[in-house]
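Lecture 7, part 2: worked example. A protein chain together with 2,6-diaminopimelic acid.
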Amino acid sequence: MQLRFTKMHGTGNDFVVIDATRARFAPTPALLHRLTDRRFGVGCDQVLVVEAPSVPDVDFDYRIFNADGSEVGQCGNGSRCLARFVADQGLSDKPRLRVRTRTSILELQRRDDGQVTVDMGAPRFEPRDIPFKAAERRARYALDMDGQRIEFGAVSMGNPHLVMEVADVDTAPVGTLGPKLEPHPDFPERVNVGFLQIVSRDRVRLRVFERGAGETLACGSGACAAVAVGQLWGRLDPRVIVQVRGGELIIESKGEGEPVLMTGPAQTVFTGELEWNE
Ligand SMILES: N[C@H](CCC[C@H](N)C(=O)O)C(=O)O
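Predicted complex, written out as C-alpha cells:
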C-alpha cells in the first residue's frame, strides 16, 4: 500500500498530515510508529488525520495521535496546519472553518498574512475537567517530587496542562522533571508539562514537555494554557507574545470564561508517499 502524507510544522512542532476525507484511515500502532519514528519512519511529534465531518455545522473532523501512539483531543499548532492543509489540498476555500476533535470544537481563521488564528475555547480550571486529582480548585497546587516542592497551575485546553513558573527556561529542568511529571498519577490521563518564564506582562518564554511526545519546539495548547494560568495568577495582560523554541505565538484572552485565541504560522515542508504493507 502507498500512503500519501504531507509533512508540516507550526513554530517547529511538526506533523504528518493524512487526508482521510475520501477514504477512512484507521492507523494501527505499527503504522503510527512508522509515521512518527524519526529513524525508522517519517518522523513527527503528532500525526493529524483530517476526516469528513460526522456532525452538522462542522467542516472537518480532526484526529490527533501523539508520537507514542496515544490519541488525544487537542493540538493547537496542528489546527493551524490543518487550516493551511485543507486550503492547499482544495478541500475547502472557506476562510473560516469549524473543526471537531474528540474533546473540542475549534474555529480556525486563515489570515491574509498567511498566519492562522484559532479559537481554542475557554480554559477549564475545575480539577475534574482537567482531569487532576485535587480536593478543590486552586490557582496554585503543590506536589512533592524527590524532596522538592513543585508549585504549579493546572488547566484543560481540551487537553491537560500543568504550568510551573521558572526563572529562565534555558536552565529549566525540562529533561529531568518533565518525564517525572508527565505520567504523574494525580493526572489520570497524564499531562503536558509547561515551564513558563514571565518576562513582562505581555511577553513570556515557554518550553513544554508534551504528553506522549516529550519536549517539542512548540506546544500551541501549552501556550494557551500558560497564558490562562498566568492571567489567573494576575500576572499577564489580555494579549501576550509567547516565545517558544520554534518561534512566536500571539495568545489573546479577556480572562477566565473567555475563549483563548492563538495566532501563528503554519508551514508545509514536503509531501511524500510511504510504502506500507502491514
Ligand atoms: N501532546 C498533546 C497533544 C499535542 C499538543 C501540542 N502539539 C499543541 O500544539 O497543542 C497532548 O497529549 O495533549
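The pocket of 2,6-diaminopimelic acid is lined by residues 13, 45-46, 64, 66, 72, 74-78, 159, 192, 210-213, 216, 219-221 (CB under 6 Å). Residues 76-88 form the longest helix (13 residues). Keep this in mind for problem set question 3.
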